[in-house]
């Protein structure tokens, strides 16, 4: 195995035996094979698209399969193996459908097109690409595409689709196998991935808000009630909707965990009496928090970590998530899911043990933030707000991440944090107060809702008559962990955002020359110390 896709890559190089995340070497190898099958499918599906012969089922498979390979999503070797098997069937059926004469003779086809179940083990050459810059760009593109596919998957589940995004995913995948594509072309593809990232985040925003309404500023309960509960984690709002519907009137409460927290601010979900609030913190604390929850837990997407024995019998996976030995809730033909096993188990469970009490404020997505735009603009003009600090992204278990709590605490009182993603758990329970009623932490939602931050920045630029988004009093101190964050970073770069500070470490997959390109073109910089970064970030523009 070799895996370097997340921020925890061993020694900022890569995991080689087992993952720091808990992924076993064998599962990692299966994930690489699955990725290569997706490339093979893409090779033929791009041809099928030329003839209008592409099928919806292929898109769904590519999105599912790609999402499976994200960090902390699927650790189940058998499940990944069955994706590989199905992938070959899909690949072969697309190939068989192509009109005669559309493909070169078998011997002239590239390796990605002729790979078989028998020789796939040695095929995906991305990590062994000799030229370190080409290798780095292929990896950067691959991980950006993973994020793109994951967000496209979220939108797809809600019925929001975009063929241009799917076609780009296929083109990008195949590009990583093509030795004729050099450094400049790869940089172009990486930037295009960022542009598609903006499109996919806009699509997902539309999907979420048209389906569930615009999030409203909400005081979310972080304590517990005295009835049994089901805990739902991950990012999939459709799973939450079905769970709320199926638990209605059963005497069982539903609590969110991790990235599901922002769901508490959607009007459609708020109307359920049994929607009880948020339990716990970011993904990496799940071992101890799940133990205390007492009831069943549903993992809808990333991030799952290897469960402890103490709660293994009450944690369920669904969709693209997998972990050996856990019960998986499958999707029915019509896209619904039956959560009866969780509901039955919850009935016999004790209520959750309290770990916190009180409330936190969520729900400042673009609509809510812009409804107080006049107030915000006025506060900036009168100097009550001196700067916005975008501190979006991921949280993680490395102890260096206390940097983000310290940074939030050290920010001057006339600054406002704009956040999205689970990075917020490093400071969303601090009492940072407000500025004339505007909270000092504006929480736009999940990492899936990062588009809100773009809309807020663009509207502010408009209001101040600024052509360049970089002239706003906005600085970026982004924390990353997995590949959705890679995509969000590329999306910001494609919008021309400069001077982003990135931490807690730079990605292991960036070669010195690729870092140089990012520094020269976008003034990207790694984070350092709170004091040093505060000086740099408060001085910008
Ligand atoms: Fe290592 Fe991250 Fe890959 Fe897990 S996902 S194996 S921690 S690089
Ligand atoms: Fe978090 Fe996994 Fe990235 Fe959605 S839940 S932001 S790490």
Account of the protein in words:
- The chain is of the alpha/beta class.
- The protein has helices spanning 25-50, 56-68, 77-97, 111-114, 132-157, 163-175, 183-212, 237-247, 267-270, 286-293, 309-312, 340-347, 366-371, 373-381, 402-410, 451-463, 483-494, 512-522, 530-539, and strands at 218-221, 229-233, 253-256, 275-278, 297-299, 315-318, 327-329, 359-362, 387-390, 415-419, 434-435, 438-439, 441-443, 474-479, 500-503, 525-526.
- It folds into three domains: 10-211, Substrate Binding Domain Of Dnak, Chain:A, Domain 2 (Up-down Bundle), CATH 1.20.1270.20; 218-347, Rossmann fold (3-Layer(aba) Sandwich); 366-539, Rossmann fold (3-Layer(aba) Sandwich).
- It contains 19 helices and 16 strands.
- The strands form four sheets. A six-stranded parallel β-sheet has the order 4-3-2-5-6-7.
- The mean pLDDT is 97.
- Bound molecules: iron/sulfur cluster (SF4) and FE4-S3 cluster.
- FE4-S3 cluster binds next to helix 17.
Structure, briefly:
The protein has helices spanning 25-50, 56-68, 77-97, 111-114, 132-157, 163-175, 183-212, 237-247, 267-270, 286-293, 309-312, 340-347, 366-371, 373-381, 402-410, 451-463, 483-494, 512-522, 530-539, and strands at residues 218-221, 229-233, 253-256, 275-278, 297-299, 315-318, 327-329, 359-362, 387-390, 415-419, 434-435, 438-439, 441-443, 474-479, 500-503, 525-526. The chain has 541 residues and is an alpha/beta fold.
């Amino acid at each position: 195995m070799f895996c370097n896709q997340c921020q925890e890559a061993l020694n900022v190089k890569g995991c080689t035996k087992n993952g720091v995340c808990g992924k076993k070497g064998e599962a990692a190898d299966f994930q690489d094979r699955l990725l290569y099958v997706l490339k093979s499918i893409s090779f033929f599906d791009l041809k099928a698209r030329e003839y209008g012969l592409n099928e919806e089922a292929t898109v769904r498979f590519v999105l599912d399969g790609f999402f499976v390979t994200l960090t902390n999503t699927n650790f189940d070797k058998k499940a990944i193996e069955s994706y590989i098997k199905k992938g070959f069937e899909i690949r072969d059926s697309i190939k068989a459908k192509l009109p005669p004469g559309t493909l070169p003779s078998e011997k002239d086809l590239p390796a990605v097109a002729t790979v078989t179940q028998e020789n796939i083990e040695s095929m995906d050459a991305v990590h062994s690409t000799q030229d370190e810059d080409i290798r780095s760009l292929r990896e950067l593109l691959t991980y950006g595409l993973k994020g793109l596919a994951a967000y496209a998957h979220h939108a797809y589940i809600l019925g929001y689709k975009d063929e241009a995004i799917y076609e780009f995913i296929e083109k990008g995948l195949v590009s990583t196998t093509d030795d004729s594509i050099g450094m400049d072309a790869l940089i172009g593809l990486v930037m295009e991935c960022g542009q598609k990232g903006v499109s996919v985040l806009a699509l997902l925003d539309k999907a979420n808000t048209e389906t569930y309404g615009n999030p409203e500023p909400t005081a979310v309960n972080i304590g517990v009630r005295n009835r049994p509960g089901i805990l739902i984690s991950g990012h999939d709002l459709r799973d939450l909707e079905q769970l709320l519907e199926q638990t209605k009137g059963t005497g069982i409460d539903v609590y969110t965990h991790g990235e599901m927290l922002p769901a508490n601010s959607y009007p459609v979900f708020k109307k359920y009496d049994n929607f009880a609030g948020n339990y716990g913190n970011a993904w990496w604390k799940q071992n101890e928090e799940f133990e205390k929850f007492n009831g069943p837990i549903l993992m809808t997407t990333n991030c799952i970590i290897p469960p402890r024995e103490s709660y293994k019998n009450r944690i369920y996976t669904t969709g693209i998530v997998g972990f050996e030995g856990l019960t998986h809730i499958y999707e029915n033909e019509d896209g619904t899911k039956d959560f009866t096993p969780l509901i039955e188990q919850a009935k016999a469970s004790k209520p959750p043990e309290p770990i916190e009490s009180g409330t936190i404020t969520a729900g400042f997505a673009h609509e809510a933030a812009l409804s107080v735009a006049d107030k915000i603009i006025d506060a900036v003009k009168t100097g009550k707000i001196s700067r916005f600090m975008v501190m979006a992204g991921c949280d993680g278990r490395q102890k260096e991440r206390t940097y983000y709590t310290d940074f939030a605490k050290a920010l001057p009182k006339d600054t406002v944090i704009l956040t999205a993603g689970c990075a917020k758990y490093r400071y969303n329970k601090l009492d940072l107060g407000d500025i004339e009623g505007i909270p000092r932490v504006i929480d736009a939602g999940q990492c899936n809702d990062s588009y809100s931050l773009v809309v807020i920045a663009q509207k502010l630029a408009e209001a101040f008559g600024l052509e360049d988004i970089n002239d706003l009093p906005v600085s970026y101190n982004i924390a990353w962990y997995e590949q959705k964050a890679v995509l969000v970073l590329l999306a910001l770069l494609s919008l021309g955002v400069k001077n982003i500070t990135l931490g807690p470490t730079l990605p292991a997959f960036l070669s010195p020359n690729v870092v140089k390109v990012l520094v020269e073109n976008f003034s990207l910089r790694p984070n350092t110390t709170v004091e040093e970064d505060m000086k740099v970030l408060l001085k910008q523009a």
